[in-house]
């Protein structure tokens, strides 16, 4: 007879294989699949995710998990895998199979509908689909919710286990108190940073060359990774030996540079997962917040530092001599850090970025907890942008349609971006005790930083939660003060505030 | 209770989804996947193909097929699907599940091993893997074989149902009798065709532009298709709304042009399958021979005609003015039809091509039926090339390692290439009674030819065998005389033979 753990292991192997196939279909859909394929391919995706559902919720799996939970002598890794399997099962066993399948197909369609709506700047054509996505999302959350848990908190916990909206309300109010006055000071101070030279005259072919260079420079391993193009940059992985990132190329050339460093940061996380847990239920980044902490660590904390660019700015000038040969390094670094309230989250500077997230957080809560009329969303969105950022989007494609997430049913996900900023800053202040970032960057020793993160964050996958990682690494629980301190120090210096 | 047919249909849907996923993994592996991913991804592929095996050989499937076979009132399409399911099941139910899985993983590895061996011109590093592949292939054939069927015929029937080696021996001897004297006449006749201008100075970027143009020109629909790059050009499809072709770019510029027309021919076949049978066991091209008849119809019978190039040669000259502005259309058409015995099958001219196939056919029979020592293969290969084509490959990469097929376990496949030539010629002579090819091509009405093939060949998928198609379309059984007549007429004119 097979050993107890082996029975579970071979069932999990089947679920992992199906999930990996689903990841590949999603990747293919976003990067390559022909336009007319979707309805046929979505059928396949529906069947595969039903197959996954069938195994994870099946009796065999239930018995195997229970047997392993009683088993003594399992290793720590095996115990973590059993726990991961239990959680994956509980997420789904409360959802009726028909609804599960319908939702999977709906989401696949919804991404297409969103893509078209965004292109044609037409929120109304997306609203009915969004409504269906929301309705499924709420229904599933109501199945999963425990006791008097809020529906929104259920959604949040899919991406970030140790948090709830009470904690987040407090977090965002701290951010608001820190950022809004700082933004005001910057505006009033009057220092103008010119970043107009970053726009126009940067051929896509050269941007591609730079994107590949940067990914490799921060340590993204092309023997285990791929860089492609898609409308909305993202990272995905089949396992820790196949991690894929995308970017998109625009007139403003720093856009693709920083999106590539960002996605490479996500990629490094997945590449850093240990071999003994990849292809298991704990073999992925532990939460979206920790994922963003890594991507934004590379993009912003490291990637926008002068010391990062010191050794490689010459290469950039060489690529675009007509544009950059008269721009000294210092001016370039100021430009890529310019604070400027704007419409598009992914293009936002590091300071106003969290305000973009706050707006989405407030709207998500209204959608989920207050049943707000979807027709009012574009207006509500514009109002909030005007209030917090002082800019009002004129069309939905630079407003509510800008992000793919809601079409994928990802509610409760956006807060992770802000949490990630805060996690990253907390890690950064701790790491400064052990290493001199400027010196390492100047001497092209990013590997030291990367290896520290691999050792202390990446390798564990889902075996630790975000707050466990913060405690183990920094010796203290989640503390957003570091992020606010980071912003104040950085922007006071850049904008020469008193 | 579900209707009998619906039970089968939903089981088949699951097998189709798994097969589609396997196709996508294979596509991804050949075109994009990072180098180090294979051993991890192959695990996934192994599990998915085992999952497929589990369903197709399971009791549920067996009962569903039997129930449908007894059911009255099924439509023709439904009956064909039931029959297809029965055949797919019988192919596998005789193979033990462990062996099935091992073989799937082995083949995935073997392609990687072959790729490296070819690159390093080292047959010895591939031989042990090839030996394993052959051993599985033979074992599976022995499980499948009926009565006193030859093992090689079992392999052949996987790709071409209505044929056996007796028929093929006769076919190849007819070809030999037709081609060898013709080749001799051409050599003795002394007419020299200069095709040296096709080599060198054709930038890859422009070759890509031409490849896309040609695919679209022959009717490959990019709303339902993709063109990518891979080491070895191939066609695959997820269903009839997602068909993918690849090419590779070389110094000799006609190489990518004709490989794209060839693969587009395969692609048109899969795009032409009816909507009501796609994603079912009969929703693919019926046999490799018929597939090759379509690809080589477009590549050679149409694609190398002067009338084909008349309307578009100007575009080619425009792309490469330095190379082609002094080359008149007639000279270009002679060059792309030049007969020249050579090492590489995929680069072979239309006349000597079938000799390349004959060599593989003879060697395959020795491997399968005579247990020949693999170490001797490179030598044997070289001897046969010297005998039939008068050229002797100096290294295995331009000899025995040139083709991917054997690494994939595709024995009994090569004959389809020669059969395809013959099927295509038989169709061509029949179609000439109904249409004027030169006139259609000159006036850019390829759609008439394409639609005829869609109507009479493509749409049926596996619902008719190759010989049934030939009978239904041309009114006679398979007859290789047409192909020999085609070659004689074409090359007598080109080389001005008496």
Question: Could you please describe the fold and organization of this structure?
Answer:
The structure is a homodimer of 498-residue chains. Chain A contains 22 helices and three strands. By secondary structure, chain A is mostly helical. Chain A has two domains: 4-93; 165-494, Neurolysin, domain 3. In chain A, helix 9 (204-218) runs parallel beside helix 10 (254-271), helix 16 (353-370) packs across helix 18 and helix 18 (415-431) crosses helix 22 (481-494). Chain A starts with a helix and ends with a helix.
Question: What's the short story on this structure?
Answer:
2 copies of one chain form a homodimer. The first copy, chain A, is 62% helix and 3% strand.
Please report the distance between the alpha carbons of the first and last residues of chain A: 74 Å
Helix content of chain A: 55-70%
Give the CATH level 1 class of the largest domain in chain A.
Mainly Alpha
Written as H for each helix and E for each strand, in order along the chain, the element string of chain A is HHHHHHHHHEEEHHHHHHHHHHHHH
Examine the coordinates and then state which fold CATH places here, giving the name of the CATH topology of the largest domain in chain A.
Neurolysin, domain 3
């Amino acid at each position: 007879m097979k050993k107890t753990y082996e029975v579970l292991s071979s069932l999990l192997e089947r679920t992992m294989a199906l999930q990996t196939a689903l990841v590949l279909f999603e990747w293919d859909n976003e990067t390559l699949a022909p336009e007319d394929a979707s309805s046929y391919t979505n059928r396949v995706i529906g069947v595969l995710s039903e197959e996954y559902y069938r195994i994870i919720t099946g009796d065999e799996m239930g018995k195997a998990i229970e047997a392993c939970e009683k088993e003594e002598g399992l290793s720590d890794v095996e115990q973590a895998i059993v726990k991961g399997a239990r959680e994956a099962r509980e997420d789904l066993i409360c959802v009726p199979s028909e609804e599960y399948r319908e939702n999977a197909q709906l989401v696949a369609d919804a991404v297409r509908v969103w893509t078209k709506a965004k292109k044609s700047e037409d929120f109304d054509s997306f609203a009915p689909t969004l409504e269906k996505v929301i309705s499924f999302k709420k229904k599933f959350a109501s199945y999963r919710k425990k006791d008097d848990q809020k529906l929104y908190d259920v959604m949040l916990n899919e991406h970030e286990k140790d948090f709830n909206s009470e904690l987040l309300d407090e977090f965002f109010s701290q951010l608001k108190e820190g950022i809004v006055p700082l933004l005001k000071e910057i505006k009033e101070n009057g220092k103008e940073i010119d970043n107009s030279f970053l726009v126009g005259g940067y051929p896509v072919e050269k941007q591609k060359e730079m994107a590949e260079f940067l990914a490799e420079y921060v340590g993204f391993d092309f023997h285990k990774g791929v860089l492609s193009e898609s409308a909305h940059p993202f990272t995905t992985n089949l396992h820790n030996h196949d991690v894929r990132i995308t970017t998109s190329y625009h007139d403003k050339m720093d856009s693709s540079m920083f999106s590539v460093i960002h996605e490479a940061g996500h990629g490094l996380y997945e590449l850093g997962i240990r071999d003994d847990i990849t292809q298991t239920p704990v073999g992925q980044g532990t939460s979206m917040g920790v994922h963003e902490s890594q991507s934004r660590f590379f993009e912003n904390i490291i990637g926008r530092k002068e010391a990062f660019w010191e050794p490689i700015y010459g290469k950039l000038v060489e690529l675009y001599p007509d544009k950059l040969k008269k721009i000294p390094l210092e001016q370039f670094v100021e430009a890529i850090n310019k604070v400027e309230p704007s419409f598009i989250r992914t293009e936002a500077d590091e300071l106003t970025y969290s305000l973009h997230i706050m707006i989405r957080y407030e709207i998500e809560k209204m959608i989920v907890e207050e049943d707000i009329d979807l027709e009012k969303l574009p207006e509500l969105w514009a109002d909030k942008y005007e209030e917090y950022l002082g800019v009002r989007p004129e069309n939905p494609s630079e407003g509510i349609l800008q992000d793919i997430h809601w079409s994928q049913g990802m509610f409760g996900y956006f807060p992770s971006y802000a949490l990630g900023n805060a996690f990253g800053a907390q890690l950064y202040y701790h790491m400064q005790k052990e290493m001199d970032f400027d010196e390492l960057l100047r001497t092209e020793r990013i590997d030291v930083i990367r290896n520290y993160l691999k050792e202390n964050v990446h390798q564990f996958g889902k075996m630790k939660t975000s707050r466990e990682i913060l405690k183990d690494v920094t010796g203290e629980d989640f503390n957003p003060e570091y992020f606010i301190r980071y912003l104040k120090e950085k922007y006071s210096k850049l904008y020469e505030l008193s």
